[in-house]
Design a protein that fits this description.
The protein is an alpha/beta fold. It has 2 domains: 21-111 and 250-310, D-Maltodextrin-Binding Protein, domain 2; 114-247, D-Maltodextrin-Binding Protein, domain 2 (3-Layer(aba) Sandwich). The longest helix is centred in the first third of the chain and has 17 residues, at 2-18. α9 (259-271) packs across α11 (302-310). The protein is globular. Residues 1-17 have low confidence and may be disordered. α2 links the parallel β1 (23-28) and β2 (54-59). It has 11 helices and 10 strands. Strands 3, 4, 5, 6, 7, 8, 9 and 10 form an 8-stranded mixed beta sheet that branches. Strands 1-2 form a two-stranded parallel ribbon.
């Protein structure tokens, strides 16, 4: 009887295993016009193809801050964002003051995400200070772009009372620009960005550069920034390279994620990286060797750390 029970139990477990639900991976990204939206879809597709026991779903969102709130409330378990706001959420600073999320963990770094300041092509608009008196869209509520605008506006000493600010996403802002009801928008996104590409080529828009003195002040206050050059060849209608600020974009999760799952997600991404690069130009400079750099001292997930040690990117100890 005992052996018969063991056989029945084994058969039951086999049946349960066969019917076992796939582990859900819910990954909010950003607006449908941005680089992250397409990248998230590509990563989810790779994971679903490579890891048969998970069901990854990528979806649009308002971007960075909303994504962190979704991770905090456990409505999502993986997302992408820049290290600046992830650091603030981790520490409970800035907009996250009083509500730290010490469970945040990075799976791997992706690319440097530049700020793109798009304005009408007028000789009177030469630098960030000239944003005063413009009708301008700094980003939607809860977006990384809005957070970035605020940090840069503070360093530039912009009087936001003089500005006609329209809080909306990039797609809505682009519609207003086409109808000549808006002078510009702020967008933090990998370059080239399809929306910026369209507006610089068809709507007489240009990108502003940030000068060396401004960037020096910015880095002194916010050490996670770096200087970034958007090549003129990135966009039609842009005659010269654009100097701007950038922050590392990373893929992150929570310490609640199973270590083996985090390991497998990380491994799957890098083993399929060359295929991902074919449809996602923003990944062109991504490699395992730079995936653990410039992470603003936010800890790696142990599962990701295991993978990077396994391939020799991190030391064994």
């Amino acid at each position: 009887m005992k052996n018969k029970f063991k056989i029945l139990l084994a058969l039951s477990l086999m049946l349960l295993t066969g019917c076992e639900k796939k582990t859900p991976i819910n990954m909010p990204t950003a607006s449908s016009s941005g680089v992250l939206y397409g990248l998230g879809s590509s990563i989810a597709s790779i994971w679903n193809k490579d890891l048969k026991d998970i069901r990854a779903v990528s979806q649009g969102s308002n971007g960075g801050i909303e994504n962190l709130n979704l991770i905090y409330s456990k409505e999502a378990n993986v997302s992408m964002g820049v290290t600046s706001i992830i650091y603030q959420s981790f520490k409970g600073e800035g907009i996250f003051e009083g509500r730290p999320n010490p469970k945040l963990r990075i799976l791997f770094g992706l690319y440097y995400n530049p700020n793109q300041i798009l304005v009408k092509n007028s000789d009177s608009i030469k630098n960030i200070k000239d944003l005063e008196n413009l009708s301008f869209a700094p980003g939607a509520a809860g977006s990384t772009s809005l957070d970035e605008f605020k940090a840069h506006a503070e360093i530039a000493g912009l009087d936001r009372k003089k500005m006609h600010l329209q809080y909306m996403g990039p797609q809505e802002a682009a519609d207003m620009i086409r109808n000549k009801n808006l002078d510009g928008l702020w967008l933090m996104s990998g370059a080239p960005n399809s929306l910026v590409m369209e507006l610089t080529s068809t709507a007489s828009m240009k990108l502003l550069s940030l000068d060396d003195d401004f960037l020096k002040k910015l880095k002194a206050s916010y050490p996670w920034y770096s200087t970034y050059i958007i090549k003129a060849s990135s966009y039609e209608g842009i005659a010269r390279d654009i100097q701007t600020s950038a922050i590392k974009m990373v893929l992150y999760t929570s310490s609640d994620m199973d270590e083996n799952l985090a390991y497998r997600l990380t491994k799957s991404f890098f083993e399929n990286l060359e295929d991902l690069k074919k449809t996602n130009p923003s990944l062109r400079e991504v490699s395992p060797q730079n995936a653990t750099k410039d992470l603003a001292n936010i800890p790696l997930h142990p599962g990701a750390e295991k993978y990077f040690k396994e391939i020799g990117v991190l030391g064994a100890n």
